[in-house]
Amino acid sequence: MICRTELKNGISLEYLDQGEGEVVLLLHGLGSTKADWDMQLDALSKHFRLIAPDMRGHGNSSIPEHSEEYGVEQSAHDMKLLMDELKIEKCHLIGFSMGGALAFELAVKHPGLVDKLVIVNTAPNFNNLGEFGEQMIAERTSSLKTYGMKPLAEQVAGNMFPEESQKHLKEAFFERASKNPVDAYYNSFVTLMQWGIGDRISEIDKPALVIASDMDYTPVELKQAYVDKMPNARLEVIKDSRHGVTMDQPEQFNSAILKFLKG
């Protein structure tokens, strides 16, 4: 069921609410929507109640006008307010890419909300990605200011799904990413690249599964390095997968998720 609610901070969120049981909050990636999880819904909703929102600045949720209204901290606070609105005291968190940053933020700021934590192809410190991060900021900023949203959406979709057999995935991702207002995407992107939890990652003691694709933008070693700083985390590598693992290897991904959450 697709629902809509206005939070106490004035942000209006559209979200999917499907299934019954323990709650799993699904947090999508930058420039995308809750559709990032379409290939998980059937498998996971047989066992859990799924809540999958569009973040502020994305999809059918509020698109703030001002740059200071964007950021991981604000979006994570939206998720806490959404859980309060739905009277959910504790949930499992699954965060993909930007959504993984929100999951880290929630785990640090609201540990009582978190039961188990799943982090997918992301990092705890986007402000410390070195040359890779600096290059990404420069290239995406230039592309957005010069050409607008569609060429960048096409590039990102092509990088995520380059195989001929993935054409349908590429087209679907391009379709939703290209609909982003340029300012909303830019503000979401820039504030993400300024965010990090630093040494606080060692405070996250919830059971955690970090999923890394073997062909993600950032290497498996980066994920292993931060897993080693978390007292109750383990790493699982998904083979033959790029950044969009929820879509390009859904069977492997769903199996890993279910084994962890039900274990």
From TrEMBL:
It holds the Pfam family Abhydrolase_1. GO terms for cellular component: membrane. One of its GO terms (molecular function) is hydrolase activity. Residues 23-248 form the AB hydrolase-1 domain. It comes from the Bacteria. Gene3D superfamilies: alpha/beta hydrolase. Keywords: Hydrolase. This is Alpha/beta hydrolase.
